[in-house]
Amino acid sequence: MKQQAKEEYVQIDAGAWAPFPEAFSKGGITWKLLHVSPEAGTWSAYFTCPKGSSFNAHIHTGPGEYVLTKGRMDVRGGADAGGASAIAPGFGYESSGARHDMTHFLVDSEFYMTFSGPLAFINPDGSVIANIGWAEAQGAWEAFNEANKKKPSKKKAA
Ligand code: ZN
Fold first, then answer.
1. Could you tell me if residue 38 is inside a domain?
2. Where are the alpha helices (H) located in the chain, listed in sequence order?
3. 60 alpha carbon to ligand 1 midpoint, in Å?
4. Is there a domain that residue 42 lies in?
5. pLDDT band for position 112 (cuts 50, 70, 90)
6. Using CA atoms, how far apart are residues 58 and 43, in angstroms rounded to an integer?
7. Centroid of ligand 1 to alpha carbon of 158 (angstroms)
8. Tens digits of residue pLDDT in 50-74
9. Which pLDDT score, from 0 to 100, does residue 117 have?
10. How remote is the CA of residue 70 from the centroid of ligand 1, in Å?
């Protein structure tokens, strides 16, 4: 028999923020993994996006939902270019197959998002550079936390 999944809680403003890989973003975006569900294939994360930062081109291989809690996020070029400009507090739904050639932040922003299935980072011709699903996100998050543990604390170094 399968067991019901355990409840979880994450204090978002506690603990270190992982840099989002520069291969997939620009401008110093950081993130925190909140939850993964291998059974559902979903993963949830919180992102902090400094003014001027952006995510590289990607395709949502499954649908996703987000809540922008701070700032402004321009998706698919923003409202002026036929996309969406989310202004906090704002909610957005991205359909399965949504292609975002650039998601950018004109002011310091933060958002929560749950992804169903992997995020596929792509080249301009649409070929896939990397698929980031729950397993990859969890692997990256655990690697960051392991590396962070091994770092001597600033107090000891002083
Ligand atoms: Zn997107």
1. yes
2. 134-150, 154-157
3. 6
4. yes
5. very high
6. 16
7. 42
8. 999 999 999 999 999 999 999 999 9
9. 96
10. 17
Q: What is the CATH number of the domain that holds 84?
A: 2.60.120.10
Cα of 6 vs centre of ligand 1, distance in Å, is 29
Residues 68-93 have a mean pLDDT of 93
Say how many Å lie between the CA of residue 32 and the centre of ligand 1. 17
Q: How far, in Å, CA of 72 to CA of 64, rounded?
A: 18
Coil, strand or helix: which one is 65? Answer: strand
Residue 123 has pLDDT above 90, yes or no: yes
* 50 token code pair: 């400094």
Task: Note whether residue 144 is domain-resident.
Answer: no
Cα 101 to ligand 1 centroid, rounded to whole Å: 8
Q: How many domains does the chain have?
A: 1
Token pair for residue 48?
A: 């902090």
